[in-house]
Amino acid sequence: xxAGDALLRVSEIFHSIQGESTRVGLPTTFIRLTGCPxxxxxxxxxxxxxxxxxMTVAEIMERVEAIGCRTICVTGGEPLAQRTCLPxxxxxxxxxxxxxxxxxxxxDIAEVDQRVSCIVDLKAPGSGExxxxxxANIDHLTRDDELKLVLASEEDYEWAKSVVATRHLAERxxxxxxxxxxxxxxxxxxxxxxxxxxxxxxxxxIHKLIWPGERGR
Length: 217
Fold this sequence. Notes:
The protein has five helices and nine strands. The protein is α/β, with parallel strands linked by helices.
């Protein structure tokens, strides 16, 4: 079986504005894969846990080409829960797309094509999934990758601050702190970052500000 014949279960493919990461604001084609073994308490894409459509890598590439955007984000769910995500990422890179991968950090990123920018979401205690963090992934990060920490409380912030310091995360790659909407006030998070002079970036989900409540954005 060729790489193009590899099957994936796809929740949706859509064209929108990137709302997160250092690519924020860029027109982007999103490929959202189905399935995730984690159950973060504040997950905003639970609809991607099940369902979706079986598509080959070749069929996905055709859909992406028809949209015509050169910036791609492969997300989920948890994309790496499907092993056939790896040939999809390589096919996208081979076709000349600028590719990012949004992953929970619970799966090994060592085999991800090195041309892909990995956006690794470290799970804070408030998520209920801290034990799923695969800390060995940090050794595979480069300056082209990013770490995202979603925080729901001051306790989460203190945990994140400690992890950044003890594991020297900002020396590895850009680090982004993001508040859980409705759980942690963004102004409070900004004030803590300024107070502690952390080498991190405050991240808000701008797609939710532009299109509140809309799916597929």
